[in-house]
UniProtKB/TrEMBL annotation:
It comes from Butyrivibrio hungatei. This is Multidrug resistance efflux pump. Keywords: Coiled coil, Membrane, Transmembrane, Transmembrane helix. Residues 9-20 have a biased composition (Basic and acidic residues). The keyword Coiled coil applies. GO terms for cellular component: efflux pump complex.
Length: 519
């Protein structure tokens, strides 16, 4: 019994040891799996990050094809110095007598007009009424001299010589009166100044002996008080002489002042006379100016009334049975109005390509294309079957100039067009230059790299790796044979069915690893 229990215990211990060993193996295995997963993830992400850092490229396949050096020309036919038929009044069109493309002679009828008063006729009539009202109002305003009214009504227009003579006489009188009045005022100012000066001098001269006289009188009183008879007699003589001198000086001052006042009165009277003359001359000049202005203004109004009446009569005559006729010989290139529409003043109702004037076509091309042609070259129709007589069509290059929109890269070709079948405004397509050439290998121009006769292309080569395919830009030398605006013909040792790199998201060099652009 004890042995059996012992065996049972040993078996249990053995199972525990085996379980522990299995747990250790599982742990190691799980750690290994996790490690491998982490390594694979890191490898994948590093490969992905590296791929996104690579230049992204676009490729094309090498193919056979043509190098086209023909220059396509297209544009609108334009008439040189086209004649625009216009009318000076607004009228309703009752009929159109010609069609576009028709040849007309001078004075051929182009349009028929309704017999109604035009807007210009009505406007001119309103203008005439306003002019006549203004003329009558100014003529009898009360500000116009009667002789001027009479002359204007009788149509007597004074000459410029008469105007000049009348104005000169009035101006001369005014100028003379103004000068005289200024001189009179100047005389008054001078006399007034002299009177003031004389009075000041007289007062000063009279005051000078007054002081000495007062001193002598004081001395005389003192001598009399002391009874000094000898001094009294001398001082009395001195007082008498000084009194006499003072009296004489006062009289002289009074005489000078009276004389100045007399002169001032005469000068004031002269000033009054000159001022009255100046006022009269001023009124006369104003009257002459008003008279001349009224006569000139009224005469001008009368002339305008006569002109308006003549224009109104002409418009009235043209309002019945009126037509619009061709002013020159030529081809009708456009009809701008139809029956029922109204004409507008100065708006072209038709355009005529005048006989003997050129028709032209302009087209903008690249500078490289323009270098292949020269003035005098002939362009041909792209689709001659659209013309009944294509042999009579000529397009001659007459000028080459810079395109103002892009002078560095573009040129404008101007052709002289000769054809009985084209009209201004018509769109046509032409071609000129060399015929297309066939080549076994052509690629886009941007696929060819290098220069100085050392051209090459970058071929996309593929390499396998455990983590996927890798693409390398491999340099292959080529020779360029020909080119046009889009493609270049090449020859070289290129792999069969290879892909040529044309563009890249950033600069690449031969041997660089790249990635394909996503489609």
């Amino acid at each position: 019994m004890n042995n059996e229990n012992q065996l049972v215990v040993e078996d249990k211990d053995t199972d525990k040891d085996k379980g522990k060993k299995r747990d250790k193996k599982d742990i190691v295995k799980n750690i290994a799996i996790v490690f491998l997963c982490i390594m694979l993830a890191l490898t994948f992400f590093s490969n992905t990050i590296m791929n996104y850092s690579l230049a992204q490229v676009a490729t094309v396949s090498v193919d056979s094809g043509e190098i086209v050096k023909e220059i396509p020309i297209s544009g609108e036919i334009v008439a040189e110095d086209p004649y625009e038929v216009t009318v000076k009044e607004s009228r309703k069109i009752s009929g159109v007598a010609v069609k576009e493309g028709a040849h007309v002679k001078k004075d051929d009828i182009l349009f028929y007009l309704d017999d109604i008063e035009s807007e210009e006729f009505l406007a001119e009539k309103e203008k005439l009424d306003e002019l006549e009202l203004k003329y009558d109002t100014e003529l009898f305003s009360g500000n116009v001299p009667d002789d001027v009214i009479t002359n204007v009504r009788k149509g007597k227009k004074s000459s410029h010589d008469k105007y000049q003579s009348e104005l000169k006489a009035a101006t001369d009188r005014y100028d003379a009166a103004l000068d005289a009045d200024r001189a009179a005022q100047a005389q008054i100012d001078a006399i007034t100044q002299k009177a003031t000066t004389d009075k000041a001098d007289s007062d000063y001269n009279a005051a000078t002996p007054g002081y000495t006289l007062a001193q002598a009188q004081a001395d005389l009183a003192d001598a009399q008080a002391r009874g000094d008879e000898d001094r009294i007699e001398d001082l009395q003589k001195k007082v008498d002489e000084l009194t006499k001198d003072q009296s004489q000086l006062n009289n002289l001052g009074t005489q000078l002042d009276a004389d100045n006042q007399k002169k001032l009165a005469a000068a004031t009277a002269e000033k009054a006379r000159t001022q009255a003359e100046l006022e009269a001359a001023t009124k006369e000049k104003e009257k002459v100016l008003a008279s001349l202005g009224s006569e000139i203004g009224l005469t001008d109004l009368k002339d305008k009334i006569a002109e308006s009446k003549a224009k109104l009569a002409k418009l009235e005559a043209e309002s019945t049975g009126a037509t619009i006729k061709a002013p020159v010989d030529g081809i009708i290139s456009s009809i701008n109005k139809v029956a029922g529409e109204k004409t507008n003043a100065e708006e072209p109702v038709a355009v005529i390509q005048v006989d003997g004037k050129d028709m032209t076509l302009e087209c903008s091309v690249k500078t490289e294309q323009a270098k292949r042609v020269k003035v005098g070259n002939v362009a041909t129709l792209t689709n001659p079957y659209s013309f009944e007589k294509p042999d009579s069509f000529k397009a001659i290059l007459k000028s080459i100039r810079n395109d103002k929109k892009d002078p560095a890269n573009m040129k404008v070709l101007t052709f002289k067009i000769e054809s009985p079948e084209v009209t201004p405004g018509q769109e046509i397509s032409l071609k000129m230059g060399e015929k297309p050439k066939h080549y076994d290998m052509i690629v886009p121009n941007n696929a060819v790299k290098g220069g100085d006769n050392k051209s090459y292309v970058l071929v996309l080569t593929e390499k396998n790796s455990p983590l996927g395919n890798r693409y390398i830009a491999t340099k292959v030398d080529v020779n360029t044979l020909d080119s046009d605006s889009k493609n270049t013909a090449i020859e070289g040792n290129l792999p069969e069915y290879c892909s040529i790199i044309t563009t890249a998201s950033k600069a690449i060099d031969p041997g660089d690893q790249v990635r394909l652009a996503e489609k």
